[in-house]
Amino acid sequence: MSEPDKQPAAGAMPASSSRMAAAGALVRHFTLDGIANPPAGRFRRLAGLLDTAAMLGNSEALTARCGRVLSVRQNSVIIAGLSTWCGLGDLVSVGSGASAWRAQIIAANPDTVTAKPMTANVNAKVGDPVQLLGPVVLRPSAAWKGRVLDALGEPLDDGGPVAPGGEAFDPYRPAPDAMKRARITRGAATGVRALDLFVPVCHGQRIGIFGGAGTGKSQLLSLLVNSHGFDTVVVGLIGERGREVREFVEDRLGESGKNATVIASTGDEAPSMRILAANTAMLAAEYFRDRGDSVLLIIDSLTRFAHAVREVGLAAGEMPVVRGHTTLLYSSLSNLLERAGPGEGSGTITGIFSVLVDGDDHNEPVADAVRGILDGHVVLDRSIAAMGRFPAIDIPMSLSRLSDIALDKSRRQLVREARRLIATYEQADEMRRLGGYVPGADEFVDTALALVPQIYAALSQDDNTGLPGARDPFEWLEGIVSSARTPPQGVVAGQERRPPAPAAGK
Ligand SMILES: Nc1ncnc2c1ncn2[C@@H]1O[C@H](COP(=O)(O)OP(=O)(O)OP(=O)(O)O)[C@@H](O)[C@H]1O
Ligand SMILES: [Mg+2]
């Protein structure tokens, strides 16, 4: 085994030797007994213990800090004895022996700290011993590719242990320095025609998929996962149903599986684990980006991440400000999302994040906050899904803020013309169905009513096979849109108000 392989995959402390464990146990014994004002006699005992630990040659053991559970709540524990030693986000081990479980510090006061369990079911009792483990560190490695891991980088699949990397990282690390980041310069072909044409994505862009429950967000993400334009794919399945994780890995990853790292934390896991899982997925993406890869990072779903942040914020005593969310919502989302994008070198993270729009209200707080941070949004519409048109993308409502980089001038012009046709169709189609539009009243409207159903049919896809005859989607769209143009050539169809054709009203 190589030197780095001897490191633990995750956690706060390196694996202990037997001497270290012995010294640690001695020191723990003292500190547990002496939380509150240790009597003078105990100092003599401390001196003895220090000597013993020094004799065992283990200075690290002397840093072990312990406390006790002071009170137990439904979703958190209050711990005494650690306030001056720990930081926010540090891990603690509560209880002893095989029944010990991990929790994360979410608030600290002068006398007590609040910790939120990292496991769903906890069995804490007042007086249980607590050991401070320190900050979470993870060791991503190339061996993460092709694996399904939990928030701590431990395997969930049956592929055996994962070789840890040589460098330890903070999964909650900050975004790269804004002025040092490379610029976004090139478009990415995702293979999803509706996106490549109308919401083009660039390498290093961050884009959100917004839609109500069951509108096809996860299915669209699984189409994206199989895009050919990326070196590495990282998928964060946050708060999804357990069934969906298995289905995603077995049915949807397809060919991309060997290049993909899946970090999963299902909805029944503790909120701290769900938050960590999103950050671990981001860390994995950063790891590969910093090696020069063009990484596609998919997180499904950001809303469930936000719900976990809400739960932790409330347990930490933060005030709810909007629909139960605390102000942590905004900082957690921007801290996470800002990390995606280009790095300082040639690698990029293209981030695609799904947002469940609660009650189909696109102005609800999570959707609103995320839309402000990202560089584009794809809106899925329930009425389009109900018609069986998938991906159910509402094209007039969806946009990429970087389409000028992704598309050259002629393609931008073509897409503008097609969007105009679609917008006209969407307005006229409903009027026509209600009997408010007489065919022939407007030539451009008639053209839109004839052509747009063809465009919609070509945009429907449920796998990554391209158009018949492997036609380039832009060439194909040019063929459709050109038939809407009227002489003289170069005038954008419908841009000029034309008098009704003589045949109007036929
Ligand atoms: N491209 C597609 N082709 C055919 N059917 C689709 C497609 N996309 C979605 N569907 C249908 O929509 C259903 C819901 O899709 P999906 O699970 O992706 O929705 P979701 O928005 O992720 O839902 P949730 O909010 O519950 O996570 C699927 O079970 C499937 O029937
Ligand atoms: Mg889903």
Q: Main attributes?
A:
6-stranded antiparallel barrel, binds adenosine-5'-triphosphate, alpha/beta, binds magnesium ion, 19 strands, 506 residues, single chain
Q: Could you give the topology of this structure?
A:
Blueprint: E1 10-11, H1 18-33, H2 40-55, E2 65-72, E3 77-80, E4 91-94, E5 101-108, E6 112-117, E7 129-134, E8 137-138, E9 148-149, E10 187-188, H3 193-198, E11 201-202, E12 206-211, H4 217-225, E13 232-238, H5 242-252, E14 260-265, H6 271-289, E15 294-300, H7 302-315, H8 328-338, E16 341-342, E17 348-356, H9 365-373, E18 376-379, H10 382-386, E19 399-400, H11 403-406, H12 409-433, H13 443-459, H14 473-482
Parallel strand pairs: 9-14, 12-17, 12-18, 13-14, 13-15, 15-17
Antiparallel strand pairs: 1-8, 2-3, 2-7, 3-6, 4-5, 4-7, 5-6, 10-11, 16-17, 18-19
Helix pairs in contact: 1-2, 6-7, 7-8, 8-9, 12-13, 12-14
The chain binds adenosine-5'-triphosphate and magnesium ion (MG).
